[in-house]
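Side project, low priority. Logging it here so it doesn't get lost.
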Amino acid sequence: MPERNIEFGKYGAHGLKGHEAVARQLDALAGYIATPITARRGLQARLHYLTRTAHAREAARAAGLTVTDRTLRAWQAGARTPSRKNLDRIEQAYQTVRRVNVARYLTARLNKEGRGTRVEIHPVNQSRVDRPRQRAVEFRTMNVRNWDRIVDAWAVGDGQELDSAWVDQVVDLGSQWGQYEYVTTIGFAA
């Protein structure tokens, strides 16, 4: 596809892919537990979230937390401390389950019954690019009315589908949409 950047950053521009910026903003809206998992309170909050119901335990197991119930009880009681590897698994399972749990709510909030959500797109940072090679890329706003594919891809962690769903929305910017494949940030609220 000719609109896609093949050698991004060759002349010094820096930024991140648009769909990655959207995923970051959705993560911020998901409202994860703020206390780090290395603190006892953060670990306990995550374990409570992952084990409070049978449905939550099944989702945690499906997300990769495959320890015995006895080990989970020992962690919750403070009798044993999870290894670094298990802390990473707990954090990953927590984020995966949280994404799935808030996806439906976020979709409804972002779609706003067909009215959509205003999105701000901040272009790539060209401060390291030599003056003759800089492009005139301005700040843009657009209204995204259909968030279903975007939020569904984010919830399951499918980067390719998220990229495809985001590009389908950015194409509405017209012939300049390829200039916004890489961005500094993307902002929106739900």
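Brief comment: Helices lie at 18-30, 40-51, 54-62, 69-77, 84-111, 148-156, 159-170.
Revisit when time allows.
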